[in-house]
């Protein structure tokens, strides 16, 4: 609560405003320059991305690159260049990964500059908007509702200032601040305004210390990445003993030429490494960021793309999401015989009393200009929790009066006749504010008791033109929409109805507080009105407790707590600094219609990576099992590195790149590791057994010089055909380009078999007719078995 001198200048400060006498002037230009020279600036690193050096390091210095790199160097010395092709593939893959992530970094950084907080600092008595990184120690920073506290400081001026520190302290109730009180970075203003002096900047600020390690793409859980890490861990443990056994088998047990033994040993180890899987995941995420960036969507944490694809419930704040931020006064209904001209004067004075008006008050200001003879002596800023604002005035004739402007159903008792008119207007989708005269002090907790209703201010909300289509999209995708608003429930329900959203409308004041009961109520209804900020948070938690993956959209300070607790928080670019800071996704163009693009991008990434992961891991499984069978049978390993490079390129590398970037609208499902391995293990085992069977039959069919090359060619044919069939299954449902992709890969392999110099280059030559057709028959039988096996797995082990 702030008492204001009746003669004080109440005009809000603008960047071009002249200095106002009697208040702190802030630093001078010379003082700012001196502090910049001493390094006393807010140099917190940009959270959106890592540096180029970090990108290169992350893509180059990986566990599997180290393994492949050593094997590649060995092969360069002991075998022809065609057996070293796998190394060049790794170089290309790493280069692609670096380029794509660098492109994503530039996109993120450019969008982050657009969406970053722009605080107002007072220097030489004039308010100026600056970038967060331009704040210096000792700067005087002005704040108002929705502003995020960007550095630590101490209050100098307060005007009913209430700050929410829950994101830092866990305490939900806003803290009233007075001059001299400390403020912490990371908190935000919920009501009132004021100014504070920066006492700690940069990495010394409280929030910066908390966020230093946690802010770079790590705040959102990524099942995809953690699942791939789990798979790679097990692959590593499988590789070690298998590779040792293979080395001993090829170098010691078999009396082959040393170089040939080394080549076949490396040929057995290299395909065990699913080296392209991590790369493809990174590339898919990076391209997703670039695609969304072109639509003015800032993804502040990369796994958020994945998270939104898993969402099954989206909670929408009405104001700013379904409706545009602005409103228009549609009518004024005086009550109890009030004089309309006098009411207009009161509304004009109320508009002038708040230097940072919300959307409702802006509409009042536009409709009712302030008179010159009224002065505000006491102000009560608007708060989402209490749902009203107020002021006391000294009128031109020497009279004094106090007024409240807010929600009728909060300010009036249930039996007041004014609520009947309010209800009728709400049913038309109109928003209604009550102007009431009060006799109590504005800082009295029961200030609204015995309030005298004076007029109803009717506001018309502007529906977003794209909201109906977006809601229809969510319905088609089996994503349930819940409208959660602080406005009157009937009014919110009417707005939702205009947009085609049907379902039960509930007044949140009647919701049970107990989490399970609240969750049950939330599952049964669609629209909720009169929701407090704390209730929004509780509602998100209640939905999550019932197994829902929840996205929350919003643009006001009353949405911050819920945005932070939701699985995915989505903020409008025009929203408050606090909401943009805690959201994982910021729609910079304020277009609700962008949200389906984000969902679609996430589904594309996850669905496609799940597909291609199966391709990679089938290869890993059959490579490990083939090595085990070779060790047990004490025979030469059937393949040289060039054979497996060819197979990997045609059945995994090239197709996976296209499949990973293809459209995919299927909602992401949980249990990534289980879903992938239930296909990869039976597929890999079947491929290994069929290939080894062909190899053993070929060993009995061919004798003499060139027998090993013929045996290898027959085994390669079987393995390729089975791998191609795995690709054909993964590529379903078919489109023209998917069928073309599978056919092109088959055609490329056929080209290798018929062109003499390619036959020589890849050491592939089919000898005779019996064994090649036997290899084809074994592959055909295995393909049929694979179809049956995967369908059985689907029934027996549903994901």
UniProtKB/TrEMBL annotation:
Keyword Translocase on entry: yes
Q: Which residues cross the membrane?
A: 60-79, 85-102, 234-253, 273-292, 612-631, 643-664, 676-698, 710-730, 737-758, 770-790
Where can this protein be found? Answer: Cell membrane
Q: Which residues form the P-type ATPase A domain?
A: 120-213
Which UniProt keyword terms apply here?
Membrane, Translocase, Transmembrane, Transmembrane helix
**NCBIfam families in the record:** ATPase_P-type
Name of the protein in question? HAD-IC family P-type ATPase
């Amino acid at each position: 609560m702030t008492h204001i001198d009746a003669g004080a200048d109440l005009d809000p400060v603008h960047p071009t405003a002249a200095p106002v006498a009697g208040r702190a002037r802030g630093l001078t230009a010379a003082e700012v320059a001196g502090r910049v020279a001493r390094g006393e600036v807010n140099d917190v690193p940009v959270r959106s991305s890592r540096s180029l050096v970090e990108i290169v390091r992350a893509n180059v210095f990986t566990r599997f690159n180290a393994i492949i790199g050593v094997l590649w160097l060995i092969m360069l010395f002991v075998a022809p260049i065609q057996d070293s092709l796998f190394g060049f593939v790794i170089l290309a893959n790493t280069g692609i990964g670096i380029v794509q992530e660098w492109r994503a970094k530039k996109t993120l950084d450019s969008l982050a500059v657009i969406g970053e907080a722009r605080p107002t600092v007072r220097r030489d008595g004039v308010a100026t908007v600056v970038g967060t990184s331009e704040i210096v120690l000792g700067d005087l920073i002005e704040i108002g509702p929705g502003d995020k506290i960007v550095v630590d400081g101490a209050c100098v001026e307060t005007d009913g200032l209430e700050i929410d520190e829950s994101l830092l302290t866990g305490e939900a109730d806003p803290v009233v601040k007075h001059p001299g009180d400390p403020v912490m970075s990371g908190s935000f203003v919920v009501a009132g305004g004021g100014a504070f002096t920066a006492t700690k900047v940069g990495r010394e600020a409280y929030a910066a210390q908390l966020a230093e390690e946690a802010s770079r793409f790590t705040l959102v859980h990524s099942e995809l990445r953690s699942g791939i890490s789990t798979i790679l861990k097990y692959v590593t443990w499988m590789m070690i003993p298998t590779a040792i056994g293979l080395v001993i088998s090829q170098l010691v047990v078999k009396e082959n030429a040393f170089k040939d033994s080394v080549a076949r040993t490396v040929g057995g180890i290299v395909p065990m490494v699913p080296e392209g899987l991590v790369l493809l995941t990174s590339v898919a995420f990076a391209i997703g960021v670039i695609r969304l960036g072109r639509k003015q969507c800032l993804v502040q944490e990369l796994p958020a793309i994945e998270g939104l694809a898993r969402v099954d419930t989206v909670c929408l704040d009405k104001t700013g999401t379904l409706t545009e931020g602005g409103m228009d006064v549609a009518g004024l209904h005086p009550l109890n015989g009030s004089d309309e001209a006098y009411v207009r004067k009161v509304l004009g004075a109320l508009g002038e009393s708040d230097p940072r008006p919300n959307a409702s008050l802006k509409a009042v200001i536009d409709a009712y200009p302030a008179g010159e003879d009224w002065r505000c002596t006491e102000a009560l800023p608007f708060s989402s929790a209490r749902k009203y604002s107020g002021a006391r005035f000294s009128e031109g004739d020497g009279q004094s009066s106090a007024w409240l402007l807010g929600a009728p159903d909060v300010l009036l008792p249930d039996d007041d006749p004014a609520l009947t008119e309010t209800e009728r207007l709400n049913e038309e989708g109109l928003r209604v504010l009550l102007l009431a005269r009060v006799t109590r002090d504005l800082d009295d907790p029961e200030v609204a008791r015995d309030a005298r209703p004076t007029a109803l201010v009717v506001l018309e909300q502007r529906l977003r033109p794209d909201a109906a289509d977006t809601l229809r999209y969510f319905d088609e995708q089996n994503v349930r929409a819940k409208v959660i608003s602080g406005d009157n429930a009937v009014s919110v329900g009417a707005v939702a109805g205009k947009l085609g959203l049907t379902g039960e409308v509930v007044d949140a004041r009647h919701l049970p507080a107990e989490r399970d009961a609240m969750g049950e109520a939330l599952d049964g209804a669609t629209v909720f009105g009169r929701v407090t900020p704390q209730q929004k948070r509780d509602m998100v938690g209640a939905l999550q407790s019932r197994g829902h993956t929840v996205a929350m959209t919003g643009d006001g300070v009353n949405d911050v707590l819920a945005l932070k607790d939701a699985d995915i928080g989505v903020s409008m670019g025009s929203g408050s600094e606090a909401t943009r800071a805690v959201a994982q996704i910021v729609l910079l163009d304020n277009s609700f219609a962008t949200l389906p693009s984000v969902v679609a991008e996430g589904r594309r990434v996850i669905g496609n990576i799940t597909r291609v992961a199966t391709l990679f891991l089938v290869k890993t499984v059959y490579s490990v099992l083939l090595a085990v069978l070779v060790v047990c049978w004490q025979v030469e390993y059937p393949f040289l590195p060039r054979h497996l490079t060819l197979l990997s390129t045609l059945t995994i590398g090239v197709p996976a790149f296209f499949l990973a970037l293809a459209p995919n609208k299927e909602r992401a499902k949980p249990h990534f590791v289980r879903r992938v391995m239930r296909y990869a293990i039976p597929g890999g085992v079947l491929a290994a057994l069929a290939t080894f069977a062909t190899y053993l039959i070929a060993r009995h069919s061919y004798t003499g010089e060139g027998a090993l090359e013929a045996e290898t060619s027959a085994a390669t044919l079987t393995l390729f055909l089975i791998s191609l069939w795995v690709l054909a299954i993964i590529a379903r449902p078919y489109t023209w380009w998917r069928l073309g992709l599978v056919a092109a890969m088959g055609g490329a392999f056929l080209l290798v078999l018929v062109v003499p110099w390619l036959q020589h280059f890849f050491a592939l030559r089919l000898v005779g007719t019996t064994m090649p057709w036997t290899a084809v028959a074994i592959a055909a039988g295995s393909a049929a078995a694979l179809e049956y096996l995967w369908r059985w797995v689907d029934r027996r082990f549903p994901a």
